[in-house]
Design brief:
With 241 residues, the chain is an all-alpha fold. It contains eleven helices and no strands.
Length: 241
């Protein structure tokens, strides 16, 4: 298992575009936004916080969405289309281990991206680290697993790698919208914010734990439920060939 994860990690690093967008882009976006003086000024819309403070949870969403909904479905569908999964089934190594390795690589890459984001946020803009570290860690883990489960579900149902990329893009755009990436969440109507609070990867729980409160257990429960349901359906309907 460790050998497969190591190999998948090396393959991930050989995709410069994915490394840049999934690992480096959130930090780059923070640096660009932070260079605008108005976004470093306390604003009543954010509870007298700065925009860069309030936007941190949405930057975490960017990382999770790229990994779970751009990288994973396309990679897995491509492996199936090229017969790699079928070849694995003829060896003592079950193809399911390859799927587990994909999720493990997502978690590792996501952790690196988020740690880098927090380090730059603290050192460059003096943004506080998450005030509820345990809640933030649990939310990040469940958020990454839930989006990975959805990504596997897309890969399971999509007939080709190209269609997997197309389907995943639709889900990706919805996640980014409700996660407050395209528009800050304070600009969205209340009912959209409420919907986004319960959708993976749990932007409301991320923001709560970052700003100091423990995340709502219901939000975490929904993430766990999505992980289990989407993962189970993906496993039962997945086609190895």
């Amino acid at each position: 298992m460790l050998k497969i994860i190591s190999t998948e990690w090396k393959l991930f690093l050989r995709e410069p575009s994915m490394v840049v967008f999934a690992v480096l882009f959130p930090t780059i976006l923070l640096l660009v936004l932070g260079a605008i003086p108005a976004l470093r000024t306390p604003d009543p819309n954010f509870g007298n916080l700065r925009f860069v403070d309030a936007f941190m949870s949405s930057l975490v969403v960017v990382t999770m969405a790229f990994l779970g909904l751009n990288k994973l479905p396309t990679s897995v569908a491509t492996y199936r289309e090229k017969g790699i999964l079928r070849r694995f089934s003829t060896t003592p190594v079950h193809p399911a281990r390859l799927l587990v390795a994909q999720v493990a690589v997502n978690v590792i890459a996501g952790a690196i991206s988020i740690v880098l984001l927090m380090a730059v946020a603290r050192l460059v803009f003096d943004i506080d680290l998450p005030h509820h570290p345990l809640g933030f860690f649990v939310t990040c883990l469940l958020g990454m697993l839930s989006l990975s489960a959805i990504g596997l579900l897309v890969a399971a149902w999509a007939p080709t790698a190209r269609s997997a990329g197309g389907w995943a893009t639709v889900v990706f755009m919805l996640v980014m919208f409700f996660g407050g990436v395209y528009l800050p969440r304070f600009l969205l109507p209340d009912f959209l914010n409420t919907i986004g609070a319960y959708l993976p990867p749990g932007v409301e729980a991320l923001q709560e734990s970052w700003l100091g409160a423990a995340p709502d257990p219901v939000h975490l429960g929904v993430l766990a439920l999505v992980t289990v349901v989407a993962g189970t359906v993906a496993a039962k309907s997945f086609r190895w060939e």
